[in-house]
Design brief:
3 helices, globular, 65 residues, Arc Repressor Mutant, subunit A, 3 strands
Length: 65
C-alpha cells in the first residue's frame, strides 16, 4: 500500500525550501496540513494544489515575469 502522506522534511525537499519555512506556513494557516498530536503531515495532492493556487495568485497580481 502506498503512503498517502508526507512529512515536513519531505515537503521542504519537494518545494526546495527550508523546514523552518514549512513550519512558518503551517503556523500561519497557509499550507494545507493534517495534525496527529504533535506530528504534522501533508498530502502530496494538497501540496500540489497549494502550489498551483500560489502560482495562479502570482499571475493575477503580476508577480510572474
Amino acid at each position: 500500500m502506498e503512503r498517502c502522506t508526507i512529512t515536513v522534511q519531505q515537503v521542504a525537499e519537494y518545494l526546495g525550501v527550508h523546514t523552518d519555512t514549512i513550519y512558518d506556513l503551517v503556523r500561519a494557516g497557509s499550507l494545507p496540513h493534517i495534525r496527529f498530536g504533535r506530528k504534522i503531515l501533508f498530502s502530496k495532492e494538497g501540496i500540489d494544489g497549494w502550489v498551483r493556487d500560489q502560482a495562479s495568485a502570482s499571475v493575477r497580481r503580476g508577480d510572474v515575469e
